[in-house]
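Section 3.1: Structural characterization of target chains.
Under the original work plan, the team committed to producing a structural model for every single-chain target entering the pipeline before any wet-lab resources were allocated. The record below documents one such target. The sequence was received from the expression subgroup and is listed exactly as submitted; it comprises 223 residues.
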Amino acid sequence: MTDLFTADALAALLQVIAIDLVLAGDNAIVVGMAAAAVPLAQRRKVIFWGIAAAIALRIFFALITTQLLAIIGLTLAGGVLLLWVCWKMFRELRSHGEDEVAPDEAMSMPESGGIGVAGTAGGAAVAAAGATTVGAAIWQIVVADVSMSLDNVLAVAGAAKEHPTILVIGLVLSVVLMGAAANMIAHALHKHRWIGWVGLVIITYVALDMIWRGSNEVLRQLA
């Protein structure tokens, strides 16, 4: 625990917390938009299994990614992957997230054909309600979660660097936020867009740092 009380460790911890907050909110939005595309009576099941899948995948990737990053070259590859995630986040932030739907919003939305739905945020998703089965919606969430959970673990591992205690704290925090506070974070991100931009800057920095460190590892190996 002594490594928590250095300036470098505290800076890494703050980066990890910011990354967890932004990516947990993004995951909640994915769950909400998928749930909005199924009939109202089945949305609770989609939301439950979607969040359960996200938590399970995050734990799974946490168990394997820290070991994989010890392999020469994979830190570089992880940094490149994370940079691609940054590009996706940039495009989403630039579009102002007009179609974002959080899980509780999906639960309160009327089914397709409701008056005035098309003009609301997420109306496009609701207009398709009934056209997507529960299984298809859950599969959509799982596919998105595979990418987002790996992104989260890579970002946390990259920010934690040589601080294993902070790595563990970050991964536990990501699971807790996804399970307990993701919906609240999704609303905060939607209302205060600057939070997303701050998160994007931090994740971009982590990605570039991973590319720099990974490149040096590869060059040392080749020398």
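The mean pLDDT is 73.
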